[in-house]
Amino acid sequence: MKYCLVPFGCQMNISDSERIRSVLESLGYERTTVEEEAEILGIVACSVRQKAIDKVYTRIHKWNTWKAERSLTTFISGCVLSADREKFVDRFDLMFTINELPKLGEMIRHHGLVTPASLRAAENAIHGPAVTVDDVPTPDPRKDYWKIAPHYSSSFQAYIPIQNGCNKFCTFCAVPYTRGREVSRPSKEILAEVQRLVNAGYKSLTLLGQNVNSYGLDRNGSEMSFPALLREIGQIGWKSTQRRDGGGRFWVYFTSPHPKDMTDEAIDVIAEYDCLAKQIHLPIQSGDDKVLLRMKRNYSVDEYRKTVEKIRSTIPEATLFTDIIVGFTGETAEQFENTRAAMREFQYNMAYIAMYSPRPGAASARWDDDVPHEEKRRRLHELSGELQEMSLACNQCFIGTEQTILVVGTDRKDGYLSGKTEGRLIVRFASTDESLIGRFITVRIEAAAPLSMEGSFIGV
Ligand code: SF4
């Protein structure tokens, strides 16, 4: 019996999908990517944009029409707003929050399905002590969601959720309504997962959370802080590099942090440990104080500037990434120019720039979306041009240098592989040797372009 999982949205949903896969496979289901082959069809939903929600409706409509011809069970999890939840309840067979994932086996059985694992157990029982299907427990009973060992989708890069939910309530965002308030995962579990992955030879680990650097604040002193967690991970990295075979190197990233919670202490710890990657994602969203106030971001451009100055003075080699929204409700031409000025000042290596669109359930969805679409496009285009220039100037500085990169896959350019520097800058190099994927190699940078570089392979 097969299942098919369709995840929408961000890394958090991909990470949740890895845990859903584990549970379904522990129940005996086999994965397929072909929806038509599956008896269980699930969606990990994203409520960030109406478009993503519309995709859920299209998918479930299609799946429900298939039910006339064959037996099928559908479920939905992930980020779902309460208004959508009410509409989905009649369309899907099962609906659960990610915290309820450990009970998925029970839910499937209550829905009237005999899972493949139950079936196998019942067949075995014919030759052993009497057992009924209802007696068969979930094969791998777990106390909660965090404890579920994920089915990692890569053998060298992994996401590690450290926190779920958000208390910030930025006015453009619905996460606090879909995922609830911040809950930090116990540090013991996080460190054990990091250690396991390092032992298994993973090279790139990303700590995940909606507001990753407020880690521990919800535990009122009974849990370590984010800098303390980074320090513990740094220690794992330090010990790992002492291994005799020298193969214990790895890079640790985190996303997404909130500028308000980016402490000097966290930056000092990143500087201190080699395994803590020198790449910082610091979403500015806007370079105008009035817009930041309406976004309820809780920092001013000047406060943000102080954090960037601390990063630059403590870790000069760190790359800086950001998120920017253009055309937020009420954003004037002058306010947009302030964002452009901020972008030039902070010299980002990468910026994820989005045109504002009201997100269902978020506070700003009740306000006028009054910047015309064409103007938003123009602003997006202008900032993308700025980014290209900045990135090209930065990448040109690497020409002639040797860089360590982690090879992540084949490149779009035929006969080339693609990798990333510690600062997550993209480097392609001529090679068809796919055994290099998942390994650190050294390349000499020969050419630069906006957002990528080209190098030649030197050695492993
Ligand atoms: S910090 Fe703001 S943007 Fe980030 S998840 Fe929380 S509410 Fe959303």
Describe the protein:
This protein has helices at residues 11-26, 50-66, 82-88, 104-110, 116-126, 175-178, 187-199, 226-241, 264-272, 289-295, 301-314, 333-346, 373-396, and strands spanning 2-7, 30-31, 40-45, 73-78, 94-95, 157-161, 163-164, 183-184, 204-208, 251-255, 279-281, 319-326, 350-355, 402-410, 416-421, 426-430, 440-449, 452-459. With 460 residues, the protein is an alpha/beta fold. Strand 12, helix 12 and strand 13 form a beta-alpha-beta unit. Helix 7 packs parallel to helix 8 and helix 12 (333-346) packs parallel to helix 13. The relative contact order is 0.08. The chain binds iron/sulfur cluster. Iron/sulfur cluster is lined by residues 166, 168-170, 173, 175-176, 210-211, 258.
SSE-based structural type: alpha/beta
| Overall structural domain count | 4
Number of strands: 18
CATH superfamily of the largest domain: Methylthiotransferase, N-terminal domain
Strand content: 15-25%
Which blocks of ≥5 consecutive residues have pLDDT under 50?
A: 129-143
Largest sheet: 5 strands, parallel
CATH T-level fold name of the largest domain: Rossmann fold
CATH class of the largest domain: Alpha Beta
Radius of gyration over all CA atoms, rounded: 24 Å
The number of helical runs is: 13
CATH hierarchy: architecture of the largest domain: 3-Layer(aba) Sandwich
Name every ligand kind in the structure. iron/sulfur cluster
Termini separation (Å)?
43 Å
Strand order of the largest sheet: 2-1-3-4-5
Shape: globular
Helical content band: 25-40%
From the structure provided, what is the oligomeric state, counting identical versus distinct chains? single chain
The mean pLDDT is 91
